Amino acid sequence: KNQVEQSPQSLIILEGKNCTLQCNYTVSPFSNLRWYKQDTGRGPVSLTIMTFSENTKSNGRYTATLDADTKQSSLHITASQLSDSASYICVVSAVDSNYQLIWGAGTKLIIKP
Amino acid sequence: DGGITQSPKYLFRKEGQNVTLSCEQNLNHDAMYWYRQDPGQGLRLIYYSQIVNDFQKGDIAEGYSVSREKKESFPLTVTSAQKNPTAFYLCATRRSQGSGNTIYFGEGSWLTVV
């Protein structure tokens, strides 16, 4: 069964600190992996998209990594800011006729001043 | 201002009523989607449409209906058959069904049954 699991479920860190969020998946055959940021009560916004051949991709203070062999991805946030408080969702695409997306439940990140 | 417009932002439904959530886009995207989001869970696909006049059921289509008469519009009707409709509903679009294309989301609609 295609699944995406994220950890931790929630995380609280102090402003200015770094953090890493994890995503493990069992989706096969794999097409690509995306990270989204979702503010409370808003629609998700794309941060990165990574294909099988990409190991690392950055978007400002966000850096995503992908290990297609172990089927793991991480999202590293550097020098966190209060505006980083949000849910971060990992989404994996399977290669099938409809390119369906398998969504993780998200990690809720809270940045404290 | 371009993008995806969902309305209303907040909606209250009495039991037994049908309600329709609107989703309009001016991105000229072919594919449109409706997702449901419940607390602590991942997004779940209700319906999707790849082209005008065509749509497919997602994972949780029971109690919902859609139409795609125009490229710009993909309204979702929550029928009385949906037993637990209280949730956050998200409309999304993608330029085409290619797996590498970014998916864009509207701001969502909160539906509460009273």
Verbal overview:
The complex is a heterodimer of chains A (113) and B (114). In chain A, a hairpin with a 4-residue loop joins β7 (62-67) and β8. The mean pLDDT of chain A is 93. Chain A has strands at 4-7, 10-14, 19-25, 30-38, 45-51, 56-59, 62-67, 72-77, 86-94, 101-103, 107-112. In chain A, the strands form two sheets. In chain A, strands 2, 4, 5, 9, 10 and 11 form a six-stranded mixed β-sheet that branches. A five-stranded antiparallel β-sheet of chain A has the order 1-3-8-7-6, with no helix packed on it. Chain A has no helices and eleven strands. In chain A, 35% of the residues are buried. Chain A is an all-beta fold and 113 residues long. With 114 residues, chain B is mainly β. Chain B contains no helices and eleven strands. In chain B, strands 2, 4, 5, 6, 9, 10 and 11 form a seven-stranded mixed β-sheet that branches. In chain B, strands 1-3-8-7 form a four-stranded antiparallel β-sheet, with no helix packed on it. In chain B, β9 (87-94) and β10 (103-105) form a beta hairpin. Chain B is globular and about 40 Å long. The N and C termini of chain B lie far apart (34 Å).
Short précis:
The complex is a heterodimer of chains A (113) and B (114). Chain A is an all-beta fold. Helices cover 0% and strands 58% of the residues of chain A.
Name some characteristics of this structure:
heterodimer; A: 113 residues; mainly beta; 6-stranded mixed sheet; 11 strands; 0% helix; globular; B: 114 residues; 7-stranded mixed sheet; 4-stranded antiparallel sheet
